[in-house]
Amino acid sequence: MIGILDSGVGGLTVARALMARLPGCDMRYFGDTARTPYGDKSREAISACASEGAGHLMRQGATLLVIACHTISALAADEIRQRYEVPVFDMVSVTAARALEGSEKGRFGVIGTRATVESGAYETCLRRLCETAKVFSQACPLIVPLVEAGYTHRPEAAMIIKKYLHPIKVRQMDTLIPGCTHYTAVENIIRRKIGRRVRVVDPSAAMADAVSSFLEAHPEAEARLRRLRSPVFEVSDVTPHWERTAQALFRQRIRLTHSAPVSSGG
After folding, report:
1. Which of 36, 179, 229, 256 has the smallest count of CB within 10 Å of its CB?
2. Which family does the entry's similarity section mention (predicted)?
3. In terms of residue numbers, what domain contains 22?
């Protein structure tokens, strides 16, 4: 089973891409809606919450983990890898690799939560892959609340996004990394405001491609994935708000079930 770990419901955009690329594959999604957002939490709090979520998915039988949250990927992916002996895919390393594939000048703009940006994870990953990479990161703390409030089509959303993207435009970056899964909901605005000269990476598609390629190259891992089971969508708090937001992000009606992970014991 593929376990999909998220801090809220933004990672449903990743789950949707995975399910489209790997139809019939057994998947279980867990989003920590009771404690979201993670983007303004400390590294210690993010690590503790992510560890509990990953432990929950492992107890349910995950044989491969997808961290469908850039913040968890930036601050807790290494710890999760060290704890569990299964393949672990994180948004930062997968998205950075995809960004490098199509960059002409090696100039990257990154937008994300405060925690993701302040971690420097994208800078570290991009420069590890390409020493000459130029990276500018911009924290965008208001985009996630706008998406979850359903304000993506209001003029305020476009104004705020334009302001966040301005420093990246003036620095003439050639590639933009939307470093938060919620940003898929405002992808059209981001593309319009950043301009046609800037290539915008699709992190969800990059993750689906990475997992699919891994399974093709590792038939023993694919053999451990049960087939023809309906996906399970679990969250730590179910409310009408989360049901509406989940449906908007997944782009079809899904059933959220409640699950409260227990502490992994550190």
Report:
1. 229
2. Belongs to the aspartate/glutamate racemases family.
3. 2-90+204-258
